[in-house]
Write a structure and sequence with these properties.
conserved putative lor/sdh protein from methanococcus maripaludis s2 fold, Elongation Factor Tu (Ef-tu), domain 3, 3 domains, 5-stranded antiparallel beta sheet, 39% strand
């Protein structure tokens, strides 16, 4: 058995010491790396808990799809384009439609049933018997006027009556004298002329009293005039008050209208004048009665266009026995025109370009072409086409503006 010397033992111990000295730095480095990794992980965890978004993964590049492709006047929406989900395509329908022209209107009294009450003589209004809006009957007393003109008219009638009586006596005397050759023919002729003039003056005086509206009976002569209602109706205007002095024979003291029949008047724009004619059916809804429709017919279409408003007056007559319709009430009049058959599209299909209405017509699947159209009129959400489209064609009815330049 070999013997271990002291030198071998020392060499062995030296070699083990060298190995331990070389292993210590590696272990220290590993510990440092592990500590750094743990710190970085803790830092990332703190960032995530604080609410900061973590970086998104890089997007994988893809080939982009265009929204649309233009080829001259045609527009193609390729497959995969997001526009396909925003466009709605519909078929042009051939429908029968009745155009409705709705216009504001107002209730008016019939002018043929309206009378302005004028004072026939100047004088002071000492009593007013009616009020504004009151209904009166024909011959009812309206007012009492104290007038010196009335007294003068009675005096003129008295003088004319006396003159007739006097000239008649003179004429009889002249005729008798001529009969017995005691008078000349000239005297008799003069007497006849005077009597004729007196009769004419008497007739004029009586006519004046009748025009004033009083009796020619001398027993009723006086200064007070009782003004009577010329027609039955309602007092729709009053321009006088008790104590006022009336001296203008052309100024109406009040206005009386018979409202048993009233007019509903609408003003038709010049460009719609061809849609309104006499005897045309009209539906009228009054603001006072919104749930009730009054059926009527056009009574009158004016031959004159108002130069300021460029409108034509149209009147519809309504019987009003219960006085529900009152002057100055507001209403909406809807005129019904004859039905017609024409291509119709929703108004959402129309696109305005360079002051021209156009639609996008489908000429192939998801391929469209802009086409100008002429619109006769729009009613609600529908447009009636006169030129440019035919029934059965497919057009973009929603989202067409997305295809426009």
């Amino acid at each position: 058995m070999p013997q271990t010397t002291q030198s071998d033992t020392s060499d062995t111990q030296h070699s083990a010491g060298l190995q331990r000295s070389y292993m210590r730095p590696s272990i220290v480095l590993m510990l440092v790396l592990l500590t750094a990794g743990a710190g970085l992980a803790a830092y990332r965890l703190i960032l995530d808990l604080s609410g900061r978004p973590s970086p998104a993964p890089a997007a994988v590049p893809q080939r982009a799809v265009p929204n649309l492709v233009r080829d001259g006047s045609r527009v193609t929406v390729p497959e995969g384009s997001p526009l396909r989900g925003k466009l709605t395509i519909g078929t042009v329908a051939q429908q029968q439609i009745e155009r409705k022209l709705q216009l504001p209107a107002i209730v008016e009294a019939d002018p043929a049933r309206t009378v302005k009450v004028l004072t026939p003589v100047a004088g002071r209004l000492i009593d007013l018997k009616v009020q504004l809006g009151e209904r009166v009957e024909h011959g009812q007393e309206l007012a009492v006027i104290d007038s010196s003109d009335l007294a003068q008219a009675y005096a003129d009638e008295d003088k004319a009556r006396s003159a007739v009586k006097m000239t008649k006596q003179t004429l009889d005397r002249a005729v008798a004298l001529e009969k017995y050759s005691a008078g000349s023919v000239k005297d008799r002729q003069q007497a006849e002329n005077d009597h004729a003039q007196a009769q004419a003056e008497f007739a004029r005086a009586q006519s004046r009293l009748r025009a004033i509206g009083v009796s020619a009976d001398p027993k009723e002569a006086g200064r007070v005039l009782s003004l009577k209602a010329p027609v039955s109706g309602s007092v729709i205007d009053l321009q006088a008050a008790r104590g006022a002095y009336l001296n203008d024979p052309t100024a109406a003291m009040m206005t009386i209208a018979n409202l048993a029949e009233v007019w509903v008047t609408a003003n038709v724009p010049e460009n719609d004048a061809a849609l309104v004619m006499q005897d045309q059916s009209v539906d009228v809804v009054f603001t006072a009665y919104p749930s009730e429709v009054f059926k009527g017919q056009v009574l009158f279409v004016s031959d004159i266009l108002d130069p300021d408003t460029r409108r034509i007056r149209v009147r519809i007559a309504f019987q009003n026995p219960d006085m529900r319709l009152k002057p100055n009430m507001f209403a909406n009049a809807t005129f019904m025109t004859p039905k017609q058959t024409a291509p119709i599209v929703p108004t959402s299909a129309l696109v305005l370009r360079n002051e021209t209405d156009q639609v996008f017509v489908e000429v192939a699947p998801w391929t469209f072409e802009a086409r100008a159209v002429e619109i006769e009129f729009q009613q609600g959400d529908q447009a009636v086409i006169t030129h440019g489209l035919k029934a059965g064609e497919r057009v973009v009815v929603k989202g067409a503006v997305l295809l426009n330049d």
